[in-house]
Amino acid sequence: MSATVPAGATTGNVVINASGVASNGVNFTVLLPTPIISTLTPTSGPVGTSVTITGANFGATQGTSTVTFNGVSTSPTSWSATSLVAPVPTGATTGPVIVTVGGHASNGVVFTTGVTISGVSPSAAAVGATVTISGMQF
């Protein structure tokens, strides 16, 4: 006999019912598909920036899954099977963002950390005038 593992199957015992009689159960492990990151939005920013990670096979809920920015763990603020949002953690440096689900690591997509300018005030000035530059990590 052969059977196809159905969508939504979970790890557990496989049991066959024949004419109303159940067989013994034999343990079967359902392998999770490898998570895939397709995009990061934004692709750069300072520590604390909320990054939307879009892809596939993240799982409906976070559970024991993890997200790292160049090896530094972060705590996502939202999670779905195809999208999650996570802040850039303290200590993160430029490097790959990786989502790990069920022990399977995704492809890495590079996120660039560093100096970010959020504004210049005033937005126009004459030569010799003083302006204020605001931002992070400078």
Using brief descriptors, characterize the structure shown:
138 residues; 0% helix; mainly beta
Q: Layout of helices and strands, plus pairs?
A:
Blueprint: E1 12-14, E2 17-18, E3 21-22, E4 26-28, E5 36-41, E6 50-56, E7 66-69, E8 72-74, E9 78-79, E10 83-87, E11 95-101, E12 104-105, E13 109-111, E14 116-121, E15 132-136
Antiparallel strand pairs: 1-4, 2-3, 5-6, 6-10, 7-8, 7-11, 9-10, 11-12, 11-13, 14-15
Secondary structural class: mainly beta
CATH topology of the domain at 36-115: Immunoglobulin-like
Q: CATH superfamily membership of the domain at 36-115, which one?
A: Immunoglobulins
The secondary-structure element order is EEEEEEEEEEEEEEE
DSSP summary, beta strand count:
15
Contiguous runs where pLDDT drops below 50 for at least 5 residues: none
The CATH architecture of the domain at 36-115 can be named as: Sandwich
Give a short account of the largest sheet.
5 strands, antiparallel
Number of helices: 0
Write down the Rg: 23 Å
The separation of the N and C termini measures 66 Å
Which word captures the global form? rod-shaped
Mean pLDDT: 93
Percent strand: 35-45%
CATH class of the domain at 36-115: Mainly Beta
What does this structure look like?
The protein is mostly beta strands and 138 residues long. It has a domain at 36-115: Sandwich (Immunoglobulin-like). The chain is built from no helices and 15 strands. It has strands spanning 12-14, 17-18, 21-22, 26-28, 36-41, 50-56, 66-69, 72-74, 78-79, 83-87, 95-101, 104-105, 109-111, 116-121, 132-136. The strands form 5 sheets. Strands 7, 8, 11, 12 and 13 form a 5-stranded antiparallel beta sheet that branches. Strands 5-6-10-9 form a 4-stranded antiparallel beta sheet, with no helix packed on it. Strand 9 (78-79) and strand 10 (83-87) form a beta hairpin. The chain is rod-shaped. The mean pLDDT is 93.
